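In the current project phase, the collection of sequences with tokenised folds has grown. One resulting record follows, to show the layout:
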Amino acid sequence: MTFLIFLIVLGILVFVHELGHFLVAKKAGVKVEEFGFGYPPRALKIGSKWGTLFTLNWIPFGGFVKIFGENYEENTSPPSPPLLNKERGAVTELESHLNSERGEVYSSKNLHFTQVSKKWQATILASGVIFNLLFAWLLFSLGFMIGLPTPVENSYGVAVKNPALTIIGILPSSPAKIAGLKTGDKIKSLSLENGQFLQKLNPTNTSDFINNSIGKVLVKVDRGGQILNFKLTPDTNIEKDKKLIGISMNMVGTLSLPVYKAIYEGGRATLKVTYLTVDGILNLVKNAVKGKANLSQIAGPVGIISLVGDATRLGFTYLLSFTALISINLAIINLIPFPALDGGRIVFVIIEGIFKRPINPKIAQVLNTTGFALLIIIMLIVTYKDILRLF
């Protein structure tokens, strides 16, 4: 079930991204040859609509929009430019004109990618990123309307419902991590093997209870409606002269906002997460240059499947928020100025605009192919580390 939910989430995010490219390309009058769900080999032709072939492909991890002339195909020459109406001093809205080399009929809404302005080209390439960010805004807004997990002390000016002591962070290799506690678990009770119970659950009392404990600590948690019990031995090596199990906690409840405020806060959340994502990627690159990059915090497909499973168990609003986070990450990663990504292709368009001539198709193809190969290698490395973390 978790894998199926992962495929649905990924499919929706890819569809939103490619829909952005598709709609803006159509608005610019550029021909979209194919809208594919999944990657080839092709499994099924769904049908043709608006001059575009819609297909279903066998590899489910992604999708694509094939825009006429976008990938610098050497054997593709753009159609002849529309004729100039000298009397009106503008380009006429031709219904069609003949390209003698290809023997095909093109209309003013069936153009080659290079036939539109550089601004339109850059906008088409950036539209997938924009749609992913807008979709994240929508998901966060829906979450605020339905009810998102929020600390009791917050800046929204609205009281949360059903507050509970919730784990909001877990240290790697800590007793809590080893035992199997997860972020989002709600602590229902805390006790010792001698029968002593903590009467009032809050972050301060819980920390003091663990610090003063003798022997193992028994923790009962609510994980998405499932009650689980854990037995942990506090560690004195995490912090000097203090017993800890390696968790950070807060009193968290459910916050629901009216529509207008939910949309506003959804936008703020999108901007904040986008900023943090960009900052994280920049720090990763900076550390990589220094030879200190830490790939342990990067998740590939296997890691994301596990996280989707955790979010699903915690509830629908958690899954909404997590999907919004993935959408933002997908947007930012695609905007990186690296060959084969949207950001790299935007760089090509900028270079062409500056030098007033197209990039050599052979060079563009080599760069894009090399970039794609490097991305696949990185994904395989991250996936390998994901699998190791499962054991």
